[in-house]
Amino acid sequence: MSISLDEVRHVAHLARLELDEIELASFQTKLNALLGHFEDIAGVDVSGVQPKPHAVSLVNILADDVVIEGLEREQALLNSAETKAGLFIVPTIIEE
Amino acid sequence: MITQLTATEINTALRAKKVSVKEVTEAFLKRIENFDEEYGAYLALCPERALAEAEAAQAKIDAGDSGPLVGVPIAHKDNISTQGVETTCASKILQGYVPPYDATVVENCREAGMVLLGKTNLDEFAMGTSGENSALRLTRNPWDTDRVPGGSSAGSAAAVSAELACLATGSDTGGSIRMPASLTGLVGFKPTYGRVSRYGLVAFGSSLDQIGPFAKTVEDCSLFAEAMSGYDRKDSTSLQGSKISSADLKTGSLKGKKIALPRELFTDAIDPGVRESVEIAIDVLTREGVDFHEITLPSINYGVTTYYIIAPAEASSNLAKFDGVRFGSRVESTGHVEGFAATRGKLFGPEVKLRIMVGTYALSAGYYDAYYHRAQQVRGLMAAEFEQAFQEYDCILSPASPVTAFKIGEMVDDPMKLKLLDLCTIPANMGGFPSLSLPSSLAGDLPVGILLTGPVMGDEKLLQTAYNIDRALGRDYRRPPIL
Q1: Which residues have CB under 8 Å from B390's CB, separation 6+?
Q2: Cβ separation of A52 and B380 shorter than 8 Å?
Q3: Which pLDDT tens digit goes with each residue over A36-56?
């Protein structure tokens, strides 16, 4: 299995990573090296094995239904690059 | 000098009023000021907070509080949120981020009377084996400053080893506490998943991450783990009854203890010097009455591959929140998606970007079944093999790292070789098992770690075994010769 430069570009877009041509080429090489190793588990017999998504299995842990204090709005906004009227400002989505 | 002492010794001196918490704290701050340039352990210091906490700790001691860690100066890894103290994960994307809250582990340590000195360096977002992936600073191994301290909790290991903190927290996703502990001659412990709250830990691989202690002795390690552990409603994966107890640490015996040696971790992949050091320890322990059995755990051979699918998959999702909107820096660009991509492309380092790419690919349509789903099945196999072994054996013993500390830059051109070094430590994260690295004899002039891994919730027994092994090996804590 090997990954083409176009696929690398597509994955970078999905991951929201702006990469220049040099980075794309470098990631293609590195990804192909890693994917080569991924083939190691292709032959493992996993028939009937349940996938293990978590380290320790827990079921429905529910918190008591009580009010607890959370962050104040001002505190939550403190680290934002841009805020206005108590809100986070995101980059423009729709042009005027 | 006070900075050379163990936590237990510092606490004893404090309670005997031989020294004040302020004096101890100032001694560490002075040492950091004088020597951290050389080691690069810290990313941020918080002397004002430290002195305020020292005052609170002194009041506890004066009021007769007999907590075993009251007044002990510590450091937190910089992926653990500290209110009012910059938390960067050693990444440019989080530079300037000052958390408005403390992680639960930070609160627990403060409540136990410990004094926070500052935040320690790491591989960016805890992604690395050597400590060389920090975007902000290079950390050096106090045993030989031309060598790596191991990662990803590089700064925490260097800080405790160079006596720039008495204790430090780390986080361990695939070995990030135990690898650097092994390379710097410290005790490093990853508790059972869920025993220490992850609330306030910047997530990397949520199903694998666990916070744990670095210390000079097993006793300090156990007391520190006890202080930071406990059920936390703010972490949905926190275990009920998770408080770790040190009450029986110094009891028990090695006689008749059944310990398994997995053949897969005693191969040519392990450096001869490391193997020799571990084998010497095995000989000593055999004479002490430990019943060693060679076993086979074939799935260990698939651990690194499985890990490098699961951890990046989880990371690609966890790191999606770093988009320059709610926290961290922002790179301005022309459009909406382009803005996020520019911020992330410019401010994440190369290893972080690579892992996000790997994870995104492994989770993408058409590849999910072949990679992520299959990796989870192999993870299931692996956990089951280990659980089976724990039915019969008290714990599993192996080297903690296949190598001793290597030269800075030596492995940067071969990232897969570096990743393969996580071979010994990864299985514990896959199954959520408690696992501890304990120093054995030196190989050449460099420390070697023995890895002990036990069953889920077997933390106390594992620590007790480690305590008894340490005593049997007759090893006093060894300072780096450079100090």
Answers
A1: B396, B454, B455, B458
A2: yes
A3: 889 889 999 999 999 998 888
